[in-house]
Specification:
With 925 residues, the protein is mainly β. Helix content is 4%, strand content 65%.
Length: 925
C-alpha cells in the first residue's frame, strides 16, 4: 500500500509540474457579481476540435494548465443566460492572464437557455458533466458507443462495460428513462449517434436519493442520453437471419419506436450457435468469441445479463430462443411509467470429463469422472416501475418484479477414486431426472418527501421478496467402497423438495442539514423473515412398483424465523472539490433455526449483534484528476445450512453436519483509487487497490476415511484475506486529421489466503497472480481499424500442510482484430485469438488458435447487408482446462462449438423525424 501511495504521489507531481504554461482569469457579470461554473474551453481553429476545458470556481476564477500550441486556436467562455466571450490566437507559447472578463446578459435570460452561436462542446453544471454530441466527430454511421469512445475520460470495453475516469457506469438512461436494462448495452450499440443531442454524466443515485435530492457517494456513474427535440420521433430496427453448415442458424431482431416520452421496443432471437441471441455487433452479429474475447466454454459460457435476467450460458452446446418488449411513457404530467417483459428458453447438451487430484495433509487421491447433461430452461421476467408526483414535494414509486423459471434436465455419470498407488477406493454412478419450478416476486413501495428547507427530506419504504421453489427428482444412484467393510449405498428414489422465503422490510430515512453542505442522515430498517426448506424422499417399492416407502433418514423440514432491526446514523459533507461520508449502525438479528429430522426436533435460538461502519471520500484535484477511498467493517450471521445440527446423508460419498456454535463472520474491506485524464495530451491513467481482511470467517472441516468417504462440518476460521491492485494507462496520438493511434496498457496484481481443516490438520493456501496487458489501436479514417493485443497471466499458489508445496502456471493471450469499411459498401472483420496455458495437464493440447472472419456487402441504398462468416477457421477451438483450488487440482473438458460457416442477411431500418438515414457515408478521398 505504501508503494502504491508513493507511485500515486509521483504521478500527480509529474503531471502538475510538467505543465509549462497556463491560461487564467476571472469571470463576472455586468453587475460585478462573480460567475461560478462558467465553462471555458480551448478549441482548434482549423476544425473546432476541443483541446482542453475548465470551469470557474466559486469566486469566478479559472486556471487552465496547457502545453505550448503552435497552431491557431480560440478560447470561448460560456454560461447559461449570457452571451459567449471568444478570443482568437495564432499560437500560445506562454502563459496568458485575461484579467477580469465581463459576460453580457443574453436577450432572453432563462434558467436553461444557452445564448451562443456554436454550442459549447462541454459544460459543467454542478454535479453534471455534459458533452455536446455534435462537437465530436465520428463516422456517419456511428452508434452511441462510438460517440462515447471519443469523450474525454470515457472508456468502453469490448464487453460493453463503460467507465468514466476509472469509475464504472452502472446506469444508462435515454431521456431520463431506462432503455432495455440499466447497463445500457442495447442503447449504446443501437441508438445512432446522429439523434443524440447531449451526453450527461452524473453520480449514480438510488431511487430514494434521486427523489429526495440527496447527494450520492459518487462511487459509480450514470449516463443520460438526451435526444434532439426535432428527432425525438422515429423508428429504427435491425433484423438478421442466417443459416450455415452443420445446420447452424441464427436469427434476431430489434425494433424500436419512440415519440417524445413514448417509447416501445421489441426484441427477439433464436439460434443454436451458443449465443445469447442478442448482439448488435455489425461484424459478427450473434457469433460468440468475436471481437477478441478469449472464448472457450471453460472461461466464458456465453451468458448475458439483461435487466437482471440471464440469457444463454451453460457449458456445452446450447440453443437459445428469446423475445422481449420494453415500454416507457409519461401518463400526464405527473406520472412516469416503464415496463418490460422478457422470455427466454435455453436447451443445453454437454458431455464432461474431469480428473481431480484431491490434496490431503498426508497423501492425495485421484477422482476421474464423466457425465452427460441435457436440459431445457425457460424464464419469464416482468418488471414494472411507476413514479407518481403526489404534489410538488412528494413522490410515490411502486416497482413490482416477477420472475418465473421452469427447467427439466437429465444428468447421468460415473466416477472412480484411486489412491497414489492406483488402488480403487470407491466408485459411483448416478442418473437424475429433475423438474424445477421457481418463482420470485419482489416489490418496492416508496414515498419520498422533500421539505422547503434545502437538504431536509423524509422517505418511508416498504419492500417484500417472496421466493417459492418446487423440485421433483428421480434419482438412481449407487456407491461402492473397496477398502473397508462400509456397505454399498444403492438408491432408487423419488425426491420432492419445497422451499419458500418471505421477507418484508420497512425502511425509514430522514435527512437534516446541519450546516451549509453538511447533512445528518438517520435510518431505521426492520426486516421480518420466514424461510422454509423441506425434502420428502420415497424409496422404490418393488412389491407395488411405486415410490411409496418414506425414508426418514433422507427427509427433513428446516425453518428460519427472525427479525432484523438496523438503526444507523450517517454524516455527509459535500464541498466544491471534496465529498466525505461516514455511516455507522448496528443490526440486531434475532432468529430461530429449527429442524425436524428423523422424528427428532432441533432448535437453535440466536441473537447476533452485528455492528457496521462505512466511510467514503473523494477529492477532486483538477477537472479530471481525483482521488477516492472507502473503508467498511461488517459482521454477518451464519447461513441456515451451516447451523443445522442433524447429519445430512443426501450424498452417496459424503455427509454434512452444521455447527450450532458458529460465531459471526467479521470483514474489513477497503478501496483506494486515483485517476486522471489530460484531454489536451489525450492521455490518462488510473491506479486502484482494494481488498478484504476476514478477521473471522466460516470454513469447512473435512475428514476422509480409507474409502475417501468424507465427513464435513463447519468452524470459524481466522485471518484470511484477498486483495487486488493495478494501474491502467491510455494515450491517443493524432497522426493526421483523419488518422489516430491509441495505446492502452495495464497491470493487475491480485492475491488471497485461504484456510481449512482436513483430517484434523490445518492447511493454508496462498495465491498470487500478476497480469500485464497492452493493446494498440490504429484508426485510419474510420475505414480501417487494426487492434493487436497481448496479455500475460502469471499465477503462483503455495500450500502449507498439503502433499505439494506449490503450483505455478502462466497463460499467454494474444489477439489481432481488423475491421474495414472499404471499399465502399463492404464491411470486413477478422479476429484472431491465440491462447497458451501451461497449466493444462500433460496429454492435452496446451494452446489453440481461434480465428473468426466476416465479409459483408451493403446494397439497396445500404438497407440490406449480405454476409458470410466463418467461425473457428482453423478448427482448433477447445475446452480443456486445469484449475487449482486450496485443496485440489482438476482438469476438465466439455464439448464445445466447432467450425461452421454462416450466410446471413441483415435488414436495417432507420427513420427519424420523417427522414430516412443513409449509412456508411465515409469520404472516399
Amino acid at each position: 500500500m505504501k508503494n502504491l501511495l508513493l507511485i500515486c504521489t509521483l504521478l500527480c507531481a509529474n503531471f502538475i509540474f510538467a505543465q509549462k504554461i497556463e491560461l487564467k482569469g476571472k469571470v463576472i457579470s455586468e453587475d460585478k457579481k462573480t460567475i461560478e461554473a462558467a465553462t471555458i474551453y480551448l478549441s482548434s481553429k482549423k476544425d473546432s476540435t476541443l483541446i482542453d476545458y475548465t470551469i470557474t470556481d466559486v469566486s469566478g476564477n479559472f486556471k487552465m494548465p496547457i502545453k505550448k500550441i503552435e497552431e491557431p486556436t480560440f478560447i470561448t467562455i460560456s454560461n447559461i443566460g449570457f452571451e459567449d466571450f471568444s478570443q482568437d490566437f495564432e499560437t500560445i507559447k506562454e502563459s496568458i492572464d485575461f484579467g477580469t472578463i465581463t459576460l453580457n446578459p443574453g436577450s432572453d435570460v432563462l434558467d436553461e437557455l444557452v445564448i451562443t452561436t456554436d454550442a459549447a462542446p462541454i459544460r459543467i453544471k454542478k454535479d453534471t458533466l455534459e458533452f455536446n454530441a455534435a462537437s465530436f466527430k465520428v463516422r456517419p454511421d456511428a452508434t452511441v458507443k462510438e460517440l462515447l469512445e471519443q469523450l474525454p475520460g470515457v472508456e468502453v470495453g469490448d464487453d460493453g462495460k463503460i467507465k468514466v475516469n476509472g469509475k464504472e457506469v452502472n446506469n444508462v438512461l435515454v431521456n431520463g428513462k431506462p432503455f432495455f436494462g440499466a447497463d445500457g448495452k442495447v442503447a449504446i450499440e443501437n441508438l445512432p449517434k446522429d439523434i443524440i443531442n447531449k451526453v450527461q454524466i452524473t453520480d449514480s443515485k438510488t431511487k430514494e436519493e434521486k427523489l429526495t435530492g440527496a447527494s450520492s457517494d459518487g462511487e459509480s456513474k450514470t449516463i443520460n442520453l438526451t435526444i434532439d427535440e426535432d428527432k425525438n420521433k422515429g423508428l429504427f430496427g435491425r433484423f438478421i437471419a442466417g443459416y450455415g453448415t452443420d445446420d447452424r442458424y441464427e436469427s434476431s431482431m430489434l425494433f424500436n419506436y419512440f415519440k417524445g416520452d413514448f417509447k416501445v421496443s421489441v426484441l427477439g432471437a433464436s439460434n443454436n450457435i451458443n449465443s445469447t441471441g442478442f448482439s448488435t455487433n455489425e461484424i459478427f452479429d450473434n457469433m460468440s468469441g468475436g471481437r477478441n474475447s478469449y472464448y472457450t466454454s471453460s472461461s466464458d459460457d456465453g451468458s448475458y445479463s439483461l435487466n437482471g435476467m440471464q440469457f444463454g450460458g451453460g457449458k456445452g452446446i446450447y440453443q437459445t430462443d428469446m423475445i422481449g418488449v420494453n415500454y416507457s411513457d409519461n401518463w400526464g404530467k405527473k406520472n412516469k411509467v416503464s415496463m418490460n417483459y422478457l422470455f427466454n428458453e435455453v436447451e443445453n447438451n454437454n458431455t464432461n470429463k474431469t480428473r481431480m487430484e484431491n490434496l490431503l495433509p498426508d497423501n492425495r487421491y485421484i477422482t476421474e469422472s464423466e457425465s452427460k447433461l441435457k436440459s431445457k430452461t425457460g424464464n419469464h421476467t416482468f418488471n414494472y416501475d411507476i413514479e407518481m408526483e403526489l404534489d410538488s414535494l412528494t413522490t410515490l414509486t411502486i416497482v413490482p418484479n416477477i420472475k418465473n423459471t421452469n427447467s427439466t434436465s437429465r444428468n447421468s455419470g460415473f466416477s472412480e477414486t484411486r489412491n497414489e498407488m492406483g488402488e480403487l477406493l470407491n466408485k459411483s454412478n448416478n442418473t437424475d431426472f429433475l423438474s424445477v419450478d421457481n418463482t420470485i416476486f419482489s416489490n418496492e413501495f416508496l414515498v419520498a418527501r422533500r421539505f422547503k428547507r434545502k437538504g431536509r427530506s423524509l422517505s418511508i419504504g416498504f419492500n417484500n421478496e417472496n421466493r417459492k421453489n418446487t423440485t421433483d427428482q428421480l434419482k438412481d444412484a449407487a456407491a461402492y467402497f473397496y477398502q473397508t467393510n462400509l456397505p454399498e449405498d444403492i438408491r432408487n428414489q423419488s425426491i420432492n423438495t419445497k422451499s419458500h422465503t418471505d421477507a418484508y422490510t420497512v425502511n425509514v430515512v430522514y435527512r437534516e442539514p446541519i450546516a451549509p453542505k453538511q447533512t445528518l442522515t438517520f435510518t431505521f430498517n426492520n426486516t421480518w423473515t420466514n424461510e422454509y426448506q423441506g425434502r420428502a424422499t420415497y424409496d422404490f417399492n418393488t412389491a407395488t412398483g411405486n415410490y411409496n416407502n418414506y425414508n426418514n433418514l433422507l427427509s427433513f423440514q428446516n425453518t428460519l424465523k427472525g427479525v432484523k432491526t438496523a438503526p444507523s446514523v450517517g454524516y455527509q459533507i459535500n464541498g466544491e472539490k471534496y465529498f466525505f461520508s461516514i455511516n455507522s449502525g448496528t443490526t440486531i438479528n434475532n432468529y430461530d433455526v429449527s429442524s425436524l429430522y428423523n422424528n427428532e426436533r432441533y432448535l437453535n435460538q440466536r441473537l447476533d449483534i452485528l455492528p457496521s461502519v462505512r466511510t467514503y471520500g473523494n477529492y477532486r484535484i483538477g477537472k479530471s484528476m481525483s482521488i477516492y477511498a472507502n473503508y467498511s467493517y461488517t459482521e454477518t450471521s451464519p447461513y441456515m445450512a451451516q447451523l443445522l445440527e442433524y447429519v445430512d446423508l443426501s450424498s452417496t460419498l459424503s455427509t454434512t453436519q452444521g455447527n450450532k456454535d458458529l460465531k459471526t463472520s467479521t470483514q474489513h474491506s477497503f478501496y483506494l483509487g486515483f485517476n486522471n485524464y489530460d484531454w489536451q495530451s489525450r492521455s490518462g491513467y488510473y491506479l486502484y487497490a482494494g481488498g478484504s481482511y476476514n478477521a473471522r470467517s466460516i470454513g469447512m472441516v473435512s475428514t476422509f476415511d480409507e474409502n475417501y468417504f468424507s465427513t464435513i462440518t463447519y468452524t470459524n476460521i481466522n485471518d484470511t484475506y484477498y486483495y487486488w491492485s493495478g494501474i491502467n494507462y491510455s494515450k491517443d496520438f493524432k497522426l493526421s486529421d483523419k488518422n489516430k493511434l491509441s495505446i492502452a496498457a495495464g497491470l493487475d496484481f491480485n492475491g488471497d489466503k485461504n484456510k481449512g481443516i482436513q483430517n484434523n490438520i490445518w492447511y493454508t493456501s496462498n495465491n498470487i497472480s500478476l497480469k500485464p496487458e497492452v493493446s494498440v489501436t490504429l484508426d485510419l479514417n474510420k475505414k480501417l481499424i487494426l487492434k493487436p493485443s497481448y496479455s500475460y497471466d502469471i499465477n503462483y499458489m503455495k500450500y502449507d500442510n498439503l502433499p505439494i508445496q506449490k503450483t505455478n502456471y502462466f497463460v499467454h493471450n494474444a489477439g489481432f482484430m481488423a475491421t474495414a469499411y472499404w471499399p465502399k459498401n463492404v464491411v470486413f472483420g477478422s479476429d484472431v485469438m491465440y491462447q497458451y496455458n501451461s497449466n493444462i495437464a500433460n496429454g492435452f493440447k496446451k494452446d489453440y488458435l481461434l480465428w473468426n472472419a466476416s465479409l459483408g456487402y451493403n446494397f439497396l441504398n445500404e438497407r440490406f447487408l449480405a454476409k458470410v462468416k466463418i467461425y473457428d477457421i482453423l478448427n482448433q477451438n477447445q475446452s480443456v482446462r486445469r484449475t487449482a483450488s486450496p485443496t485440489s487440482i482438476y482438469d476438465t473438458q466439455d464439448i464445445i462449438l466447432k467450425q461452421y460457416v454462416m450466410f446471413s442477411l441483415t435488414y436495417k431500418l432507420e427513420k427519424f423525424a420523417g427522414k430516412k438515414k443513409s449509412r456508411f457515408n465515409i469520404d472516399e478521398d
